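Support request, please re-run this one:
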Amino acid sequence: MTKYVIKRILFLIPIMLGVSFIVFALLYITPGDPARNALGPSAPEEAVVQLREEMGLDDPFLVQYGRYLKNIATKGDLGSSYISKLPVSQEILSRAGTTIRLAFFAILFAVLLGVPIGIISAIKQYSIFDNITMIFALIGISMPVFWLGLLLIMLFSVQLGWLPASGFSTPAQMILPSIALGAQSVSVITRMTRSSMLEVIRKDYIKTARAKGQRENVVIWRHALGNALIPIITITGIQFGQLMGGALMTEVIFSIPGIGRLMVDSIKMRDAPMVLGCVLFVAVAFAIVNLVVDLLYTFVDPRIKTKYV
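Re-run finished. Output below.
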């Protein structure tokens, strides 16, 4: 198990290199001048030229990228923001907690709603409940986050005045962003749970459990769900990782000071170090979530644990 975890952590190195190179290249070829953005449109050209030299923006692409990697490898330094002049790691750490909480509450909402609905749909296959559920699941998957967020604000904040339209520091402020971000995940988890349960409840050991006189609740929740959890855990982990990166639009709409909003503002200003830091944070978080999901398999199915020993 320890060797497996170490191997997965070492796999992060090529992933980070690939992600950083692609993002660095995209920012390099994107039109705009970070030095001009930092000083403002009214700054004299001499000051802009001097700042470009200090920031090393006149160097070739490979020189800039090599210098960036060297600072990370030798100092653990992600650089400083072109705009705020603050260390990138400090800015990210100050906002990471908000993004993680937003993704966590969104996936919690998705699991608590999606798993029970998927189970009931599988038990009552082709019933009215199942058909209605699948229709709403299809709508949920097709619904853009920014559109749903705006609808929720218009209904619950503007029209009804029940919930605040911005912020993420109080329980009331957490409700609308979590629903907006987690709505698509509800649909995905519902469909996966239904599919996984339908496959399991047709197995012979489920028929045997019923033939022995086991109560239907025991058959479904202990025998069937326990053996259907692997695909559900997999899709939940993938969704949680995607929510970490997909929180971008939600944070902008609800004015949440998280990594997503920081990334949007940094892209507008062509603040390359900050954008790179945000992307690397999301990539590392996604990789860690996948590792945790793989380790959870060993607790759900002991047979898998033998592969890691």
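The chain has two domains: 2-75, 91-308. The first helix runs from residue 2 to 10.
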